[in-house]
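Dear support,

I submitted the protein below through the web form. The confirmation email said the job was done, but the results page showed an empty box. After a refresh the structure appeared. I'm attaching both so you can tell me whether what I see now is the final result or a partial one.
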Amino acid sequence: ECILSGIMSVNGKKVLHMDRNSYYGGESASITPLEDLYKRFNLPGTPPESMGRGRDWNVDLIPKFLMANGQLVKMLLYTEVTRYLDFKVIEGSFVYKGGKIYKVPSTEAEALASSLMGLFEKRRFRKFLVYVANFDENDPRTFEGVDPKKTTMRDVYKKFDLGQDVIDFTGHALALYRTDDYLDQPCQETINRIKLYSESLARYGKSPYLYPLYGLGELPQGFARLSAIYGGTYMLNKPIEEIVIENGKVIGVKSEGEVARCKQLICDPSYVSDRVTKVGQVIRVICILSHPIKNTNDANSCQIIIPQNQVNRKADIYVCMISSAHNVAAQGKYIAIASTTVETADPEKEIKPALDLLEPIEQKFVSISDLFAPTDLGTESQIFISRTYDATTHFETTCDDIKDIYKRMMGSEFDFEEMKRKKNDIYGEEEQQ
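What the results page shows now:
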């Protein structure tokens, strides 16, 4: 919603942004001080002294990393919201195999040294990566007999003779699929996802992921600032009493007795329970640790993906870890957050393989959230509802949703180049030098 309010303001729309909370970011806020997190999860008492100063903590409720070459970074660059943020590269991505974790190779040297694959497998995998790097959907000469719109990914893996372990980590740690459904779909999407991973990795070398200092709560604030520069208004602590509808169409929002009139409305599912449907649940466990995660070479930050095959599940389990190096925790402390899509009546048992990697855990905060999707696409009502954040630990799916809402509102695809030109018109050419 914050990103859209920034983009709509740049597009010349008059934006009023209301939030019933006292902080930015809604569901995906960063909570500070630590005392507030204890309150939010109804834990008795206050944090122990060993946790340091409460205000040194900024704990994300919904952990996500940014792909260095991904859509959100593009949005940040084009809107110049980057001037309000500082990023650090995440130190490594790891994948779970047979109860242990292995670093996802990020260079050719690492791939050759990795114990994830045997020697001949490495050669085949390298051949496959070279193929992906050269693949260009507009140039049939790069297809080598593969039809990007027809050949399934399963067949592409077969073509390079890649074994199950390699398929697991390629599909889940590189292409970042949550299930194995992609294997029987046309390979174009998967090849593009692996390309995005490789190109993101090429930018900074350690991993393809970035994370903002002071936590993800900085992102919505950056876009709120962007909106303000273009004349948008932001109100925190603003209760929403009613969405006013006339002849099936939104005409305003009632708050504290007044009605703010509008032609279009964007909101998350919590404001319109009658226009959304429940599509699943996610369990997230925030863990405070006093040590880096074992077998990660004492990294200050990392991601671990547990492919579903390895733990007999349908969906992957994700762990992402950040620390005092990112100004989100007290000195010497680490925050690890595990998340997955719920499949049984005992979600805490489902997430146990991830928590076992984190032991000993000083404090746990468990949340189980319902996932909603809009039943009303806004064509008639002009109410545009976002989807609940999923269990993935990156922003690509969120950006797809942003672009989808933009298209439904504006009737045209979201165009990065168009945004660039609009900015030139406002700032003039000098500032662009």
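Response: this is the final, complete result; the empty box was a page-load delay. The first helix runs from residue 2 to 10.
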